[in-house]
Design brief:
This protein has 318 residues and is an alpha/beta fold. It folds into two domains: 5-107; 126-317, Rossmann fold (3-Layer(aba) Sandwich). The protein has helices spanning 5-36, 39-59, 65-84, 113-125, 157-174, 191-204, 214-223, 231-241, 259-272, 285-292, 294-303, 314-317; strands spanning 106-107, 110-111, 181-185, 209-213, 244-250, 276-281, 305-309. Strand 1 (106-107) and strand 2 form a beta hairpin. It is elongated, with a radius of gyration of 30 Å. The chain binds zinc ion (ZN). Zinc ion is lined by residues 98, 100-101, 112, 114.
Length: 318
């Protein structure tokens, strides 16, 4: 799944550290109490002995009422000692960061919500989307799209956007899914917005997703050679093995002789691994063929669902 073994272990290590930190704090508070209230130590011993005694009596089937009374009176004495010396009654209840899992990260064999949150934060961190607004489908409104403009299929701008949104929702629901999306069309019509929504929703489901602009990908292809063990090298690797990749703005790169083969390698390797990719572009498929080669365009025709966005520039309108 989304987190690698070492990432999972790193997260679990944080939970271990939290527990150790809490134990340390508990010991420090206990020591402070005994320093300030020396008589507390013998009182604690008496309470412990009383509990042991109660267990013995219970085991023999005896009446534990009197032992319970004794424990209550000892506990009451302890509370009053706390008060007399200015300590709150719950001084030894060192709080957990998460009360639900008591800082174990797992409850009855299931990942706690705090673990899922930490895991998603890590996935977002490596998604290259932290600098972007993390939008979900509820932020994607089709009201910005006209009902008057149509494309050659006769669909209106709004119908096209709605079809893409519905397909994206189905894709997320059924993820992991081997589908791929090619979202193309006019500038400012919400292609990148929808792609970001898909990536955010996928990460919220606990899968890994990475967003990369095509010029950034091309730069990474060269920079990784000088940074194999660093962040650039790691980012390059993630493009090939994350569960969802958004390759944004195909066609916006400064095309070099190697660009078509770099793009083809990325697309092909992800197809071969059964990993989903969402490509956005201002170019249509014939322009992709002219710039990136027949082989790139044929992959997109054969293995990607196409969605056409058109109409007014939403960045101005909405
Ligand atoms: Zn928890």
């Amino acid at each position: 799944m989304a987190l690698s073994n070492s990432q999972f272990n790193d997260l679990m290590k944080r939970y271990d550290e939290r527990q150790i930190e809490r134990e340390r704090e508990l010991d420090a508070r206990q020591k402070r109490l005994y320093d300030v209230i020396p008589s507390l130590r013998s009182l604690d011993d008496a309470i412990r002995d009383a509990y042991i005694n109660m267990a013995r009596v219970e085991l023999k089937g005896g009446d534990v009422a009197s032992v319970k009374n004794e424990i209550s009176s000892l506990e009451a004495k302890k509370v009053s000692l706390f008060k007399e010396n200015g300590f709150p009654e719950n001084y030894l209840d060192v709080p957990y960061t998460c009360n639900d899992c008591k800082d174990k990260g797992i409850v009855e064999g299931v990942k706690c919500h705090c673990f899922i949150k930490a895991s998603n934060a890590l996935l977002f961190h490596q998604s290259n989307m932290e600098k972007r607004l993390q939008k979900t489908f509820s932020d994607f409104s089709i009201d910005c799209y006209e009902e008057t403009k149509t494309d050659i299929t006769g669909r209106t701008s709004r119908q096209s956007a709605e079809a893409a949104l519905n397909a994206a929702k189905r894709f997320v629901e059924s993820f992991p899914d081997k589908s791929n999306f090619f979202i193309f069309g006019d500038t400012g019509t919400g292609k990148t917005h929808l792609a970001c929504c898909i990536a955010t929703e996928i990460i919220n489901k606990g899968y890994s997703a990475v967003f990369v602009k095509t010029p950034e990908f091309i730069d990474l292809c060269y920079q990784r050679f000088n940074d194999k063990t660093g962040e650039k090298g790691a980012m390059y690797e993630r493009l090939f093995d994350c569960e969802l990749l958004v390759l944004d703005d195909l066609g916006a790169d400064y095309s070099t002789r190697n660009t078509p083969s770099l793009v083809l390698t990325l697309i092909d390797e992800r197809l071969n691994s059964g990993l989903s990719t969402v490509i956005t572009s201002n170019l249509d498929i014939s322009q992709i063929r002219d710039i990136y080669s027949e082989r790139v365009s044929s992959r997109i025709i054969g293995d990607y669902k196409n969605f056409h966005f058109f109409g007014s520039d939403h960045r101005i309108k909405c």
